[in-house]
Amino acid sequence: MYYSVIGMIAIVLHLIMNHEFIKIDRNRDEVNKAFRRFVFASLMYFVTDVLWGILDSLKLPSLLYVDTVVYYISMALTIAFLCDYVTQYLHLNSGFGKFIRIFGQVFAALEFVLLIINHFVHIFFWIYPDGTYQAFAYRYIALYMQVVLCLSLAIQTGIVMVKVADEMKKRYFTIFFFCFS
């Protein structure tokens, strides 16, 4: 249960820091809409993480399996929406920006398909009847793809960051640091 407390704190901080983007505003530009999608996917990730800790402590393996599937879906959406947001925010309309945006979408779609297959053949993860979690090969491949995507975004943000005026460097550094970490 202690595991879930950290996630609850993250949810509260997430809601406080992003309250402006959670509110409905039909006049948002495309960059802010992209950021809003990213905020909600991140929130979904935090909620599933909190639920995971609760379900694990209650020893409910069937619900733990469902929550883990939703957890991975939220993670895939977070990555896809991060790629979309960063490429829009940095105005990466070149081949690289389009490639990253499409790669993020393909990553999310591929992860959805793998999670469906995983229900029948354990290729991504499995929750055993005793509640034990085990990751399989495709989980590690997906993790590697996430790292590559985030590092690519961080490097591109760093390149753009050195070319902009000082007042924008702080904003770009925040994105750089987030993607790098």
Could you give the order of the helices and strands?
Answer: HHHHHEEHH
Task: Determine Rg (CA atoms, Å).
Answer: 18 Å
Question: Which regions contain 5 or more consecutive residues with pLDDT less than 50?
Answer: none
Approximately how much helix is present in the residues?
Answer: over 70%
Strand order of the largest sheet: 1-2
Strand content: under 5%
Tally the beta strands.
2
Estimate the mean pLDDT confidence.
92
Number of helices: 7
Distance between the termini: 26 Å
Largest sheet: 2 strands, antiparallel
Shape: globular
Structural account:
The chain has 181 residues and is mainly alpha-helical. It has helices at residues 2-17, 19-22, 30-57, 61-89, 95-120, 137-161, 166-180, and strands at residues 125-127, 133-135. Strand 1 (125-127) and strand 2 form a beta hairpin. The mean pLDDT is 92.
